[in-house]
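tool_log.txt
---
The assistant was asked to compare two proteins side by side. It first ran the structure predictor on the initial sequence, then on the second. Raw inputs and outputs are pasted verbatim so the downstream comparison step can read them without reformatting.
(1)
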Amino acid sequence: MGRGRQAQVIKLSREERKSLELLTRRGTAEQRQVMRAQIALMAHRGESTTAIAQALGVSVQTVSHWRTRLVRQGVEGLQEVSRPGRPRRIGEAQRLELLALACEPAEPDGRATPTLDELVERAIERGVTKQISRSHLQRILQAGDLRPHRVKQWLHSPDPQFRQKV
């Protein structure tokens, strides 16, 4: 005698099965997508939730969750959904302005690159943002693959006649 509820029956069309099988064989697919596709295919073949969980090394609750999503939303239910969270305080336009600000030379007669503290001051002075911490600015610069401290000196020479000499 079985325990718990009866597993929901999953029926996939031929095209859906083919696309999920291709996904499981693709070497560049995300592991979570492959696992979800395998759950769908095994459920379509009529395997129990417990058997699928044991075969894939995941919990019964995980398999049950994806079976339910498949029944309610179809194969589209296997895709990622947006997750809750606080929206960004600094928008994309402001992030781009901060990146441009970091690309400017520090001083006409001094260092080639500004420090994070100088960048924070400039951003607040110019009204790019009302407030930003050094660490937040550093994360934004890293996300933009910008490392002002690693700029080579000859790119931003303090020499005023650098362009003519080159």
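(2)
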Amino acid sequence: MKQLIFAVTLLLAAGAQAQTIQGNATTGKQDVFMCEGCHNSTGYRVAFPEVYEVPMLNGQSAGYIAQALQEYRSGQRRNQTMRAIASSLTDQEIADIAAYYSQPKAGGTH
């Protein structure tokens, strides 16, 4: 019984820790090199897998950006390029990137 209680406690602690990841905008600035080529270029469009306008990230809510990256990583959102990028990110890197882009005028002057 003690082992079961210990195991449940560890799981709860791990879940609580996962929910408390805080993004660091300064660190995030170092991680956005792979984002800048497409995002934050006014009027940029891609034609794969279909033609669509690439959204600007500057000033977006950190929660929205983090959720979108997690959904690309899990496959819930479908875009091969974004899935590959998001799959390479840790939860901390996602939080850092989201914190960076949620600042006003992050990533440039757009």
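---
observation on (2): The CA atoms of residues 6 and 12 lie 10 Å apart. The chain has one domain: 23-101.
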